[in-house]
Specification:
The chain has 420 residues and is of the alpha+beta class. The chain folds into 4 domains: 65 residues, no CATH class; 90 residues, PAS domain (Beta-Lactamase, 2-Layer Sandwich); 64 residues, Signal transduction histidine kinase, dimerisation/phosphotransfer (DHp) domain (Helix Hairpins), CATH 1.10.287.130; 160 residues, 2-Layer Sandwich (Heat Shock Protein 90), CATH 3.30.565.10. The protein contains 11 helices and 12 strands. Helix 6 packs antiparallel against helix 7. The radius of gyration is 41 Å and the shape is elongated. It starts with a helix and ends with a strand.
Length: 420
């Protein structure tokens, strides 16, 4: 064998060994790098610089993936916060009709702690809503349904949005109870104000037509009809003023100027203002209030307005020979406190008690509503706004007002004001 061939053979063997060693070292390095990636490391081992470009590319991809995951997590957290704070309910059901997600609003509206895993029928519990959900799944079109839930005293509007890919459904639930209630109040207000205006306006028209027909020249009938017209105009003026006062109080435009007020002085001032009316109606008006009763921080003019309204009603519905008693007591001196009244020593309770005709039990819960008047009150005139104004003034002072009455045996109106 020639020397050249021997040298070539040795070189080939050496190259083969070297390539094998390099291959084995590269495989070992790649295994270590794979283990490092599984442990969350992106840098290669220090002795394997041949993998630097691969490691760099993997690192860039890993950083981009981590950025996308962070963005998705942030978006998910924001979406979860929005869903948690929404006043509208959100339900998501899968293709089998099982609820997979619900936000707190939906749980509150339907009165279910955790609807997940339950069927849509179990959660909705209303055949109209279930039928609308079924139509949405069948037609693959959005459906909307408005229903009243008597057992929950709610008015709900539910929008069903089908998922064209997964066969599931997205349900958006709006609680329209408050909106419906406000609409009822608005409708009742328009109806009531129309009724209250129609009566005096019809009376004024009849009186005017009578005077035009020749009664104005009658020395006896003419002045009497004119006096009645003035009375009706005064009633309209009073109604418009009370409506304005009520609107300003409800909108918070009336500032309550608080100062230290003596309950005894407040009662005496209101009684003095109403003494002439009580004497004219032959009703005894008395005040019972100890001078050492704790003072209150309140607007004396507004609270006197409340007392005057209550005394006016008491005198109007008390027969001649009856009596009206005004009193005030500290909360600790009262054995039976009213609901939600302040703790002992925390409030002063005012009372206006009469021996009048009383209020029917069915009407008692509604007497503080605007324009609400029982039949006896309607016969006695008035706008039906005085008690509503009184309620708003008392509540603006942080107090509450209520009434107790037995039909035929008199009434007692009470309100409490936090003491100073």
């Amino acid at each position: 064998m020639s020397l050249a061939l021997l040298v070539a053979l040795v070189a080939l063997v050496a190259l083969t060994v070297w390539l094998g060693w390099r291959h084995a070292r590269l495989l070992r390095a790649m295994r270590e790098y794979g283990k490092a990636l599984r442990r969350g490391m992106t840098a290669p081992a220090a002795d394997v610089q041949q993998l630097e470009e691969l490691s760099h590319a993997v690192s860039l991809n890993a950083e981009a993936l981590r950025g996308e995951l962070a963005t998705l997590a942030s978006e998910r957290n924001r979406l979860a916060a929005v869903l948690d704070q929404m006043t509208d309910g959100v339900l998501i059901a899968n293709g089998d009709g099982e609820v997979q997600f619900s936000n707190p609003a939906a749980q509150r509206i339907f009165g279910i702690t955790d609807p997940r895993g339950r069927t849509v029928t179990e959660v909705l519990r209303d055949h109209q809503l279930v039928e609308a959900w079924g139509r949405s799944r069948t037609t693959h079109q959005p459906q909307s349904e408005s229903v009243e839930i008597p057992r929950l005293h709610q008015f709900l509007q539910v929008v069903f949005l089908p998922d064209a890919h997964g066969g599931g459904s997205l349900m958006l639930v709006q609680d329209l109870t408050r909106v419906h209630r406000l609409e009822t109040v608005r409708r009742d207000f328009v109806s009531n104000i129309s009724h209250e205006l129609r009566t005096p306006l019809a009376s004024l028209r009849a009186l005017a037509e009578t005077l035009q027909g020749g009664a104005i020249s009658d020395p006896q009938a003419g002045p009497r009809f004119l006096e009645r017209m003035v009375t009706e105009v005064d009633a309209l003026t009073q109604m418009s003023q009370e409506l304005l006062d009520l609107s300003r109080i409800e909108s918070g435009q009336v500032a309550i100027e608080r100062q230290h007020v003596s309950p005894a002085e407040l009662l005496r001032s209101a009684a003095e203002r109403m003494k002439v009316q009580a004497d004219r109606a032959a009703v005894e008006l008395t005040v019972e209030c100890p001078d050492d009763i704790p003072g209150i921080r309140a607007d004396p003019a507004r609270l006197e307005q409340v007392l005057v309204n209550l005394i006016h009603n008491a005198v109007k519905f008390t027969r001649p020979g009856g009596s009206v008693l005004l009193s005030a007591q500290a909360a600790q001196d009262v054995q039976a406190q009213g609901p939600r009244e302040g703790s002992a020593g925390g409030s002063v309770r005012f009372s206006v008690r009469d021996t009048g005709v009383g209020i029917p039990a069915d009407d008692l819960p509604r007497i503080f509503e605007r324009f609400y008047r029982v039949d006896r009150a309607r016969a006695g005139g008035g706008t039906g706004l005085g008690l509503s104004i009184a309620r708003h003034i008392v509540e603006a002072h942080g107090g509450r007002i209520w009434a107790e009455s037995i039909e035929g045996k008199g009434s007692r109106f009470l309100f409490s004001i936090p003491s100073a």
